[in-house]
Amino acid sequence: MDTVGYHGTSEDSAQSILSSRNMYPSNGLDEWLGRGYYFFVDPDDAKWWCTQRKYDVPAIIIGTFEFSNKVIDLVASSRDQRSFAEYCKKVKNKTNRLPDRTIRSNYMQLAISKLLEDAKRRDIKIDAIRAGFPANRSFWFRKTKDLEKFPCMIQQVQICVFNHDVITSLERYEEAII
Q: How far is CA 169 from the centre of its chain?
């Protein structure tokens, strides 16, 4: 399992994170992986995120993790993938309106919330979830015919940490010059 992740943010937020040694979790109503602390496995994806957010001065924070409980792995664990698929089936026909009456952009947070509720009821502690997305992979094939020739999944990988205590360090990421 990944032990480091890269968080793309603004320079002001980076300074706040580094001085307080604390992050604020994403807590919107429609987060991809639920409410938590978001990291990318690849620093280039964190940089890409900064461009999507149009930060005037982007900054990358590297977080180090020490997981002691369950990490849901939607990239490499077929068991976790099958379990998550069942939760997705349970929520796929729910309302497309969020509690604030805006339109839901995806159902991921809804499925993950149900999964986390069930885990809590069964006294299973979940530290994080790891998942892949096609975002920032426009260079990869899109046409079915091409994908048949090159049938691997090319994706960015994100980690959403639910348990802040597993984040053992937060430091500024400086790209190594070789």
A: 18
What strand order describes the sheet that includes 126-133? 70-73, 126-133, 156-161, 37-40, 4-10, 58-65, 167-172
Encode pLDDT of 108-163 as tens digits. 888 998 999 999 999 999 999 999 988 878 778 888 888 788 888 889 999 999 99
* Distance in angstroms (rounded) separating the CA atoms of residues 17 and 73: 26
Tally the residues of the chain.
178
Q: Do residues 136 and 154 lie in contact, with contact meaning Cβ atoms separated by under 8 Å?
A: no
Structure tokens that stand for 128 in this block: 């994080």
Q: Cβ(33)–Cβ(108) under 8 Å? A: yes
Gap between the Cα atoms of 15 and 56, Å rounded: 14
**Strand boundaries in 57-166, DSSP class E:** 58-65, 70-73, 126-133, 156-161
Q: Which secondary structure element, helix H or strand E, spans residue 12, and what is its range?
A: helix 11-20
Of 170, 178, 116, nearest to 4 by C-alpha is: 170
